[in-house]
Amino acid sequence: MKQKFEITILGSSSALPTSRRNTTAQVLNHAERFFLIDCGEGAQIQMRRFKLKMQRIDRIFISHLHGDHIFGLPGIINTFNLLGRYKELHIYAPKQLEDFLNAINTYIFTRLNYSITFHYLKPEGKDLIYENKLLKIFSFPVSHRIETWGFSFEEKQQPRKLIKEVIEELSVPIPCRIKLKNGEDYVDENGNVFLNEDLTTPPPKPRKYVFVTDTEYLPEIKNHFDGVIDLLYHEATFLEREIERAAETKHSTAQQAAQIATLLNAKKLLLGHFSTRYKDITPFMEEAKQAFNGEIELVEDGKTYSIV
Ligand SMILES: [Zn+2]
Ligand SMILES: [Zn+2]
Question: What's the predicted TM-score (pTM) here?
Answer without folding.
Answer: 0.94
